[in-house]
Q: What sequence folds into this?
């Protein structure tokens, strides 16, 4: 089963959305206009009020974490390739008998 990636928004995008709500537009109208889930926008408004609104990439990533992420992705790719080769080998071995 494939995992659906989470949508990430920049701090600027979140701030502009929150500003529209603070300027008097309803959260529902702003969310619909921006293609957001209304509760997500409400959470942003609440976070902005607490001065804790952050965006994508706000988390500091160390070089070691980046390398680990790259190696995990490469490992997953190699496992997929290995499975394809196993299936191809089994397929062709069946044809030669």
A:
């Amino acid at each position: 089963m494939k995992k659906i990636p989470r949508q990430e928004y920049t701090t600027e995008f979140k701030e502009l959305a929150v500003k529209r709500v603070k300027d008097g537009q309803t959260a529902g109208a702003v969310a619909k206009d921006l293609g957001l889930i209304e509760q997500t926008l409400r959470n942003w408004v609440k976070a902005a009020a607490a001065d804790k609104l952050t965006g994508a990439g706000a988390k500091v990533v160390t070089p070691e974490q980046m390398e680990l992420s790259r190696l995990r992705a490469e490992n997953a790719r190699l496992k997929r390739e290995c499975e394809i080769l196993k299936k191809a080998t089994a397929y062709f071995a069946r044809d030669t008998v």
Summary: The CA atoms of residues 22 and 87 lie 58 Å apart.
